Every structure is written in C-alpha cells, then in structure tokens.
Amino acid sequence: MPATGPIFLDEQTIRRRVGELGAEITRDFAGEELLLVGILKGSVFFLADLARAIEVPLEIDFLSLSSYHKEHQQTGAKAIRFLKDLDQPIKDKNVIVVQDMIDSGLTYHFIHRSLTLRRPRRLEACTLFDRPQLRLVDIEVRYRGFEVPDDFFVGYGFDHQQYYRNLPYVAYLQPDDLQQSLF
Amino acid sequence: MMERPPTFAYYRGAKQPEFATRTELEAAKLFDYHRIAWEYEPRTFILEEDERGNILEAFTPDFYLPDLDLYVEVTEMKQSLVTAKNRKVRKLRERYPDIKIKLLYRKDFVRLAQKYGL
Predict the structure, then answer these.
(1) Whole-angstrom Cα distance, residue B114 to residue A151?
(2) Strand A34-40 to strand B45-49: parallel, antiparallel, or no bridges (unpaired)?
(3) Do the Cβ atoms of A12 and A66 come closer than 8 Å?
(4) How many CB pairs under 8 A join A and B?
(5) Which helix (H) or strand (E) holds A7?
(6) What is the DSSP secondary structure assignment for residue A36, as one 8-state letter?
(7) What residues of A are labeled active site?
(8) Three-state DSSP class for residue B1
(9) Segment A48-80, tens digit of pLDDT
(10) A108-167 pLDDT, tens per residue?
C-alpha cells in the first residue's frame, strides 16, 4: 500500500464539524424522529459520529449500491441497483441520506428518485465531503461537512482498494495506479 | 477510430451514436449506468449569423439529458479545445439563457472515473 500524504483534516476538525452538523439537524427536527440512511461503505464512520451528535430519537439503516466497475466486470449488469435495500418502509418518515461524498450527484439522484417513490415525509441529503465543482445533476444538499478540492483522500471512511478507511483523520493519497486507472 | 459502442438502455435516439472521443463514450456509459436518459448531439444551436441570416457559428453539445433538461459538453484536456468550448458555451448561455448546459472537463471526468473505476 502506498504511504499516505499530508493530513487534510485532523480528528479535531472533523469532530467539530460533525458536531455542528448534528446540532443543525437536531434544531431542524426538534420534536420529531429521524431515520439516518448510511450509504455503505464510505459513510459508516461519519454516520456513527453524526448519529451520536444528534439529540432527537433516531433509527439507523443502510443502503448498499452496486459498483460500476465490479458490475461491468463480474456480472455484466449495466445499471445501478441496490445490493442491500432498507430493512424497513420509510413512508411518512423523516429520512436523511448520509454519504461520504457527493460529486457529480448521479448516485444521489438515483437514491433520491428511488426513495421518493416510497413517500417519506422528508428526504434530505447529508454529505461529509462535497465537490459542487463536479456537479452534473442539480440536487439539494441540505447538510454538508466540507467543500473539498479534486484531490484523492483516504481515511475516516474513504478508501483506496478498501484500505485506510479506519484512519481517524483524512489524508491525501497519490497512489501510483491512479492515473493508469483512466481508460 | 472508436470501438463499437455497447448497447445502451437509456439512450433516447433513433440511430446508434458515433462518439468522437473515448471520453464521450465513457460519459455515455456513466449516464446509462445511473439510469439517466440521454441523447447524443440532438440539437445544434446557432451562435452567430450575418445580416442575411447565414449561419456564421453554431454549436452542437455532446449530450442532452431530457429528464434533467440539461445539455452536457465533454471536452478534452488540450488547452485550445478547452478555450474554444468555453467560448462556445459562454455564447450559448448568452444567446439562449433558458438552456441549461454544463461543461465537463476531462480532468473532472478523470476524478469521476477514479471514483467509478473506469
């Protein structure tokens, strides 16, 4: 595995911002209940900390989405789909979809379309990292942790070939095969 | 010469698209994978005419995403192409303010491609 580069966000900075997001969500949903839906796998650490920073009653559930690369290589499937769906109906529930990163908005657009059909009371997006400069689909991101540049990061849920997710901070990484992975 | 494109489920066009670049093909695959309906070069916009109405400059964006009512232009990294397309997109926005168009640079696509493992 390549060594990580400099730290982009340290633990304290992440903790402070996640706490702020939790307080904001607590204010917005005061007196109500929530369902946090984490998108596997990148959101797990963020969701765990965010959930503990929210002070309204909440449930947790997860969605897992097919991987573009693996689907094409292994199954020949040609369209995004849920590999793991929610364990419960969301009709009339306040739902916040928790993601590690939103960039093009294509993935969240699919999630939003799919979950809207199930008629939740509210459906909001929360992302730790946002790259609005890469946005293709105009989506509303109500809660965002940080706007970040187009660098490759690892740690706090972000991986490279499934490693580094458990780092308590976010660091830069420039793996050797990064440029070779394109086309 | 481009490889023969795969069969697309969300392509909304009459005939098989013939992509000019590999980046365009990969963009089409990305839209299709995310179940986003797309068309390839469906409309040409007149950007400039002379006093007799002869077309002096026109622009055909690479993609139209009907569900999003959005045109997408994909550009390569060569600076001269980027500059020319930036100028055309700016003129299109000036002349057709109601048209939504986004310019996707190859460097942006590199970042998305890393995410999706293209």
Answers:
(1) 11
(2) unpaired
(3) no
(4) 74
(5) strand A7-9
(6) E
(7) 103
(8) coil
(9) 999 999 999 999 999 999 876 655 555 555 788
(10) 999 999 999 999 999 999 999 999 988 889 899 999 999 999 888 999 999 988 999 999
Q: Which residues of chain B have a CB within 8 Å of the CB of A182?
A: 110, 113-114, 118
Q: How far apart are CA A22 and CA B100, in angstroms?
A: 35
Q: Is the dihedral of CA A164, A166, A167, A171 positive or negative?
A: positive
Residue ranges of chain B with per-residue pLDDT less than 50: none
Contact: B34, A150; criterion CB under 8 Å: no
A 18-47 near B (Cβ less than 8 A)? none
Task: Please provide residue B64's backbone torsions phi and psi, each rounded to the nearest 5 degrees.
Answer: -130, 130
- Any CB–CB contact under 8 A between A77 and chain B? no
Model confidence, pTM:
0.85
Tell me what the pLDDT averaged over chain B comes to.
85
A84/chain B closest Cα distance in angstroms: 17
| The two structure tokens encoding residue A95 | 């739902």
